[in-house]
Design goal:
alpha+beta, 347 residues, 3 domains, single chain, five-stranded mixed sheet, four-stranded antiparallel sheet, Dna Ligase, domain 1, DNA polymerase, domain 1, Alpha-Beta Plaits, 13 helices, globular
Length: 347
């Protein structure tokens, strides 16, 4: 850790949408619940309860697949106005202890509690207070991670869900880092993790000793940032009410797509994911962008802007599919597809 030690909390509501539904409908309590679209269409899982996760159901999964994994799944259409109202309750509780609250979505936020209205020197006690108040005022549970920086606090909050509290004190940082896989690093998804493992980097701390040239070849300009995180150093400050500029969803396929029908299905699925993300953040978008990377690595983008801004999943998918028609997809094989939304605003 460089500089003065900060006290950062990452607070994450547990299975937020599904938990609100279970709270408000007692018949759903204890049952596997998925919030999202219809399995008959191209509906996706926006959120699911812990009972559903035991069957392998996950958010952003096609609802039809979720139903195959868990035939007794209770499917509930989302009510984002209700979730937003509960989120505002939670955020008000967080802001009661510090103005330095950075919401990431409706159900999670960072707080810098180095100084706080409770005059409490221990961030762990602040986290306990917040968890207790959230439970008392909303009848919901939250998990919290406490650490000297954002990177570690976010990992800590997911360490012992649900209703967890994990503290990484400065003197415990190194021991904690030693046990993490390379996937724990910010920005390292499955594709990047595979590249890193191919050069012998399987654990987070392996990044420190990795050969510079091989690391840069694997992750490009990310190399310096990943080395810094691997030392447990994350200088980013908590920035209240950070504005969202864009949201992007993309997938690289293990085998090139050759069928236009398959490409269209993937674009629709990615648009659904982007729409679900807009819903979670209570945002609307004016611009839709698609990215197509052909088998020879040539990459093209197409975009379309219209008013009024929307987060309607069907409309966003329709626009993305029209943009796909303005590329060579189907005439050429494709290795990557992406859908992004820009020009964001509250809605």
């Amino acid at each position: 850790m460089i500089g003065a030690v900060r006290k950062i909390i990452h607070l994450d509501m547990d299975a937020f949408y599904a938990s609100v539904e279970q709270r408000d409908d007692p018949s759903l309590q204890g049952k596997p619940v998925a919030v999202g679209g219809s399995p008959q269409g191209r509906g996706v899982v926006a959120a699911c309860s812990y009972e559903a996760r035991k069957f392998g159901v996950r958010s952003a999964m096609p609802m039809a697949r979720a139903l195959r994994l868990c035939p007794q799944l209770e499917i509930v259409r989302p009510d984002f106005a209700r979730y937003k109202a509960v989120s505002q309750q939670v955020m008000a509780i967080l802001r009661s202890v510090t103005p330095l609250v950075e919401p990431l979505s409706l159900d999670e936020a960072y707080l810098d509690v180095t100084e706080n209205s409770l005059h409490q020197p221990l961030a762990m006690e602040v986290a306990k207070y917040l968890k207790r108040r959230i439970r008392e005022e909303t009848a919901l549970t939250a998990s919290a991670g406490v650490a000297p920086n954002k990177f570690l606090a976010k990992i800590a909050s997911g360490w012992n869900k649900p209703d967890g509290l994990t503290v990484i004190a400065p003197e415990r940082m190194e021991a904690f880092l030693q046990q993490l896989p390379v996937e724990a690093l910010w920005g390292v998804g499955p594709v990047t993790a595979k590249k890193l493992r191919a050069i012998g980097v399987a654990r987070l701390v392996d990044v420190r000793a990795a050969d510079e040239a091989r690391l840069r070849k694997a992750v490009g300009s990310q190399a310096d940032w990943l080395r810094r995180l691997a030392q447990g150093d994350d200088p980013r400050e908590v920035k209240p009410d950070r504005p969202w500029k864009s949201i992007s969803c993309e997938d690289t396929y293990p085998e090139d797509l050759v069928s236009l029908k398959e490409m269209r299905a993937e674009i629709a699925r990615l648009a659904q994911r982007a729409a679900a993300s807009l819903e979670r953040k209570a945002l609307v978008a004016r611009t839709v962008t698609i990215k197509v990377r052909y088998a020879n690595f040539q990459t093209v983008t197409r975009s379309h802007t219209e008013e009024p801004a929307t987060r309607d999943a069907t409309r966003l998918a329709e626009r993305a599919l029209l943009l796909l028609g303005r590329t060579d997809a189907g005439r050429r094989s494709v290795r990557l597809l992406g859908v992004g939304v820009h020009g964001l605003g509250a809605g």
